[in-house]
């Protein structure tokens, strides 16, 4: 089918299909996300090794403005940032615009206006390509955002859509202007204090060290990767190891403080029994009283370009499944919608006065101690978090008392922490070999854990792949070292018990990590520092010794 006919079909049926539930089987979905991109990919001036073509009609619900983007992967690979060519349909489906536009999610307003001016100066006055602000997509917020993002456009109407030949010529012309801008200008200036992953970890580690807490750079790297993988992390360990402080200093190092409202400490109380203690409730007068987390969510929604950090201090003083289950469920509903991360409602309009969603720039870190005053975690919670253990204490780390240079905080935006992957296919499109390598190892681990009923599901597999993909992208740690952290944080916390099956599984996991068979001997001096996964092996050995001595074992010290 011709490109002309594909566009006309979308414009003819979209409004009708929009009244029905969004489904991948709908014709509009098929046309915008598959047929039109495939037709564009056949054009000779769009080599597939350089240009990526993708379309969207929304995810979960229909979007007001469907689009099909043509992205030069040497410049940008996301519709959230940078500039690219994109076809935008008007809300009433009477007009189609071929545009040179910018990502509206991660581009500051002043930067957007500067780029628009620069692009428009390169385009000569002519009848077809317009460089004014007269584009009209509709009245929704999304339509207005897209209108502001457009630097140049060619307008088509449903009643006068040109031939395939003209559509192709127009696209080639627009790409020509796009290439001129790329070639004649310096690379887009990054936002102030934009850092690579490696630079960010260096800065955060230096800042925390200057505060007097001893954490290795590798530990800071792991915390950073864990937050980027998923905005919910559990920090465990004995009291006094600085679990709360490391988060406070990390937040402060990137410009998030209690004073500006971007770092919030919420002490958990033992009498919390449901989500109202955290999110809020409707009082006897019918007025909504927001909880401490709701206040953070509202503020974070107003500033999507800034990260917000929340510490749930002593998170397991109350049962986490009781007061935090709503947040966990909504966190799992996160999805891409028009290049942005969105979620299901956290609180409905009837309760909070407006529909409240979980913004992607809110990061929740729970600190936990395991003793007689606290509650254990269910697998439901452990599946949804990276569990980082801090038990090492180095009291003689006194460098911070000496005359060391002060490390100033930097103003760093949400882009550093923002998730790029929500689904396994997002990772597989970039690094299929990594996904296949990780899956092969996890299949072996599941074989060991299955007799205990402790084997992992798809969620854990996907999040381990996300973590390792970010690590590879930033060249932060060797693969085996990063996988060792994943094994410690996503697999071992699931293992507990008192019978021979637990012993057998732990011994097999030890062999998986080191290549050494224990055969019931746990007190021998073993040198496995050069093993494939030494951190996990050390933890497993401690768990086995505890099982032998106490008749019960778990990941948690003090439980």
UniProtKB/TrEMBL annotation:
It comes from the Bacteria. InterPro entries: ATPase_dyneun-rel_AAA (IPR011704), McrB_DNA-bd (IPR021961), Methyl-DNA_Rec/Restrict_Enz (IPR052934), P-loop_NTPase (IPR027417). Residues 233-384 form the ATPase dynein-related AAA domain. One of its GO terms (molecular function) is ATP hydrolysis activity. Residues 9-182 form the Type IV methyl-directed restriction enzyme EcoKMcrB subunit DNA-binding domain. This is 5-methylcytosine-specific restriction enzyme.
């Amino acid at each position: 089918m011709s490109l002309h006919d594909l566009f006309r079909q979308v414009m003819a049926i979209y409004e009708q299909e929009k009244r029905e539930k969004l489904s991948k089987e709908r014709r509009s979905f098929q046309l915008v996300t598959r047929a039109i991109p495939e037709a564009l990919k056949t054009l000779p001036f769009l080599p597939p090794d350089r240009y990526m073509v993708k379309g969207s009609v929304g995810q979960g619900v229909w979007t007001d403005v469907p689009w099909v983007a043509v992205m030069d992967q040497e410049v940008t690979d996301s519709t959230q940032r940078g500039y690219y060519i994109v076809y935008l349909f008007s809300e009433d489906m009477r007009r189609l615009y071929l545009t040179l536009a910018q990502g509206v999610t991660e581009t500051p307003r002043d930067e957007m206006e500067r780029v628009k001016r620069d692009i428009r100066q390169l385009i000569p006055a002519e009848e077809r390509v317009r460089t004014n602000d007269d584009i009209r997509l509709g009245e929704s917020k999304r339509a207005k955002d897209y209108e502001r993002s457009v630097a140049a456009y060619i307008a088509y109407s449903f009643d006068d859509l040109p031939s395939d030949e003209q559509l192709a010529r127009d696209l080639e012309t627009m790409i020509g202007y796009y290439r001129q801008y790329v070639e004649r200008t310096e690379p887009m200036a990054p936002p102030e204090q934009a850092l690579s992953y490696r630079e960010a970890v260096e800065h955060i580690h230096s800042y925390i060290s200057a505060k007097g807490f001893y954490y290795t750079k590798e530990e800071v790297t792991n915390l950073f990767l864990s937050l980027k993988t998923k905005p919910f992390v559990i920090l465990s360990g004995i009291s006094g190891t600085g679990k709360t402080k490391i988060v406070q200093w990390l937040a402060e190092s990137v410009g998030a403080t209690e004073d500006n409202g971007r770092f919030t400490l919420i002490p958990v109380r033992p009498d919390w029994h449901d989500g109202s203690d955290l999110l809020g409730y409707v009082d006897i007068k019918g007025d909504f009283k927001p909880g401490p987390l709701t206040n953070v969510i509202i503020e974070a929604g107003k500033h999507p370009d800034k990260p917000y950090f929340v510490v749930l201090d002593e998170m397991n003083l109350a049962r986490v499944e009781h007061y935090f289950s709503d947040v966990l469920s909504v966190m799992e509903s996160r999805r891409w919608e028009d290049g942005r991360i969105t979620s299901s409602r956290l609180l409905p309009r009837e309760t909070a006065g407006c529909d409240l969603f979980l913004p992607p720039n809110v990061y929740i870190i729970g600190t936990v101690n395991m003793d007689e005053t606290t509650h254990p975690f269910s697998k439901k919670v452990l599946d949804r978090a990276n569990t980082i253990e801090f038990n090492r204490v180095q009291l003689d780390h006194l460098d911070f008392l000496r005359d060391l240079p002060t490390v100033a905080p930097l103003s760093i935006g949400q882009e550093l922490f923002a998730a790029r992957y929500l689904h396994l296919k997002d990772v597989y499109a970039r690094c299929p070999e990594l996904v296949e390598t990780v899956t092969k190892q996890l299949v072996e681990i599941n074989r060991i854990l299955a007799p205990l009923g402790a084997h992992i599901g798809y969620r854990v597999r996907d999040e381990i792949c996300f973590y390792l993909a970010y690590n590879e992208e930033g060249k932060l740690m060797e693969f085996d070292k990063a996988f060792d952290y994943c094994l410690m944080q996503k697999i071992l916390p699931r293992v507990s018990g008192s019978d021979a099956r637990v012993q057998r599984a732990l011994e097999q996991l030890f062999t998986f990590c080191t290549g050494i068979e224990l055969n019931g001997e746990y007190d021998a001096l073993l040198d496995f520092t050069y093993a494939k996964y030494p951190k996990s092996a050390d933890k497993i050995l401690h768990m086995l010794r505890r099982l032998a001595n106490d008749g019960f074992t778990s990941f948690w010290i003090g439980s």
